[in-house]
Design a protein that fits this description.
about 90 residues, alpha+beta, 4-stranded mixed beta sheet, about 25% helix, about 25% strand
């Protein structure tokens, strides 16, 4: 078994992998280590990707937050699709 961790371009990321930020916005917490990276070469950045199957629902926090924390997987995937369209226009 290879220890080499997968690296994806944004348009290649499988639908079951999400960044920590996106999982937070779905109200999910990771229960395992990251399984891959998404690379944005034009920004020279990489973000860890986590498998949605290795998550749990977060405890509801008291208090106020401006961050929406109850998005569905479908909403996040729709967001991702929209971002890829913008990216395609910007970088040909």
């Amino acid at each position: 078994m290879s220890n080499e961790i997968m690296r994806y371009l944004p348009e290649e990321v499988p639908d079951h992998l999400f960044t920590q930020n996106r999982l937070n916005r779905m109200g999910l917490a990771t229960t395992g280590e990251h399984v891959a990276y998404v690379s944005y070469p034009e920004q020279k950045r990489e973000y860890k990707l986590f498998d949605i199957n290795n998550t749990r629902k977060r405890q509801k926090q008291k208090g106020f937050s401006l961050v929406v924390k109850d998005l569905t997987v479908e909403q996040i995937l729709e967001e991702r699709k929209h971002e890829l369209e913008i990216r395609r226009r910007q970088f040909g």
